[in-house]
Amino acid sequence: MVQFNGKYQLERNENFIEFIKSLGQEIPPEMLEKLNKTKSIFEVSVNGDDVKFISHSSSGSTHATSFTFGKQFTEETLAGIKLQTTPKKDGDKIVLTANFGPKSGDRIYEFSDDGLVVSFSAGGVVGKRIYKRL
Questions:
Q1: Origin, by domain of life (predicted)?
Q2: Helix (H) or strand (E) holding 32
Q3: Tell me, which fold does domain 6-133 have in CATH?
Q4: Which candidate among 3, 57, 104, 126 keeps its CA 20 to 30 Å from the CA of 25?
């Protein structure tokens, strides 16, 4: 079993902005640019069924999300989108299934000894954020 806990440095995005745009939310262009260019640090802490994600952007802002596997929760993304999210653990992955308006989608956090790949999918569009383990 791969270790989830740790800090991860964002290395690159793949189709991430296209994914965000596909959600149909009004997001200012400067926010999209910030999301695409940031070299954030992502912290993960898992204690039993309780999980905490903390994102530290290169601009100095911090965003935290806490949840418990199997219990739906409301979260607000960095872009200000509110989601009803259900988390589950699946081997070396944490899967968050979210409903936002008429759409639903998944974020799959796939951990390895080298890092983390976060895949975002909704409505047939997939984006990725690739992190290295620190």
A1: Eukaryota
A2: helix 29-37
A3: Lipocalin (2.40.128)
A4: 57
Domain map (residue ranges) of the chain: 6-133
Query: Per-residue b/e over 65-89, b at no fewer than 16 CB within 10 Å?
Result: bebebeeeeebebeeeeebebbbee
Distance (Å, whole) CA 1 – CA 38:
30
52: which DSSP letter? E
Q: What are phi and psi of 33, to 5 degrees?
A: -65, -40
DSSP SS3 for 113: coil
What amino acid occupies position 73?
F
DSSP 61: -
| 133: nearest Cα among 1, 10, 12 | 10
Measuring CA to CA, which residue among 20, 9, 41 is closest to residue 128?
Answer: 20
Segment 52-104, tens digit of pLDDT: 999 998 778 898 999 999 999 998 876 677 889 999 999 999 999 998 666 78
pTM of the predicted structure, to 2 decimals: 0.87
Name the token pair of 9. Answer: 């440095």
List residues bridging with 80 in a β-sheet: none
